[in-house]
């Protein structure tokens, strides 16, 4: 916004100068300090990111919040003041493994008590690996109210990356709803289930465009001339190479991203270098990040559309648009061409092929262990429990305990959650993944998986038909505290005898978020080498809220003294407050 306000495109030379000054001073602070200190106030404010005015959760007045920029090995300190007045909060640092600081993962109910209104919580952690990461609320369904942002971790001085570029830019993709998260959450958790439906808009870097005129809403509620919802523009200089870091924090939608007329060379995924491959458009699932290289080699006399489209669900949300602005064209000049529409929403072969194409880059391969100590198969199903709509893994629908696991386990409060081991498998011989479940009943539990420290664990995500006939949704699964190797994807039911023979053990990419495609499976491997308690869940906001997640414990006895700042709720109340 500041950028838009400061640009005067008639004076091109000054414009370019202002640009570089802006980027040097504001977007790219110097990288010699080892501590990155941020002071944030989280608040509700009226915002109109897609022209429709609603309450959004902001950080220092902004959504998306400020970008955290650091260098590998730096310590990030975020002093977070909860100014929400009547609501708790917690922030998760998505993709940061929190080695040695599992209590800073920001996952309410798992690693910490929520931060109370008026309280200030200090998050402090090391960013140990370069790459593109995200942060977002991890309490209730707050993420979709706008509490999110980007983390950019640069390589140390003197270290060269395996590709070159002239400029480094970041954008976050999102979907946007007009109903409040409270109304949505209440609908999802009532017996007369109300589904959140498809989002009203798609946002690029916090901006979208809802059709106010067609909606018939009054101008004080929806105003297309509001500068808050003028399209985001990314100004580029012709003849250069841009590294574009793209993250998705959608609540529901899988997206396809494209820049009209430009190829994208994929070079990074979730902080790992990718063996470069060229696409015309990129599929990106909630919780994933990518870096792509874009060469500004097209006709420089015009602007181009950058566009997001919904994939994998029947698309009703209009295309999300931003302007890829070739300097010195005016950044508000909309291209006269039609924006990219991406692939057909239901082209699952296309999506599977792109997932399979993502491999670790030669020279940067971290070889996976060739065998694993344990295989956990997780059947993804939609269920009904006592008339409530839920999602489950192996017929168990996850609920969060009131006392966070990390504190409960460290302080031997075993009575606060179900001690039965979570189920290792499902009845794969008799279960038909291609039909709606015969018996949709499931059980609630907050039981967890306890992993042997330093063991190698395989996870088979097995997708299935939901409660609706001929429907199997795509679920992006995100693991806290680790990166996993993506060993393979397949269609249909996983075959435990033959499919492992086809695993990629040569150059699998490591990621922290991965899709399981409809009616398919995805196989992951990770080492349980990070002492702590870690959530693994579907990154669709409403699905996790409806029980689609599990929790792993590993080496909790090795976790150091817990800070008292994470306590104060449930059984920890009073006892551990200083
Ligand atoms: O959880 C969900 O519920 C709806 C639908 O299955 C029932 O309305 C949907 O599309 C989901 O992803």
From TrEMBL:
GO MF, any single term = L-ascorbate oxidase activity
Instruction: Give TM segment ranges.
Output: none
In the UniProt record, which is one GO cellular component term?
extracellular region
User: Which EC number(s) does UniProt give?
Assistant: 1.10.3.3
- Compartments (UniProt record): Secreted
Cofactor(s) this protein cannot do without: Cu cation
Q: Which CDD domains match?
A: CuRO_3_AAO (cd13893)
What Pfam families does this protein map onto?
A: Cu-oxidase, Cu-oxidase_2, Cu-oxidase_3
Keyword Secreted carried by entry: yes
Limits of the Plastocyanin-like domain: 42-154, 170-328, 423-555
Per UniProt, the keywords (alphabetical) are:
Copper, Disulfide bond, Metal-binding, Oxidoreductase, Repeat, Secreted
Primary location class: secreted
Similarity annotation? Belongs to the multicopper oxidase family.
Oligomeric state and interaction partners are given as: Dimer.
Report what the protein is called: L-ascorbate oxidase
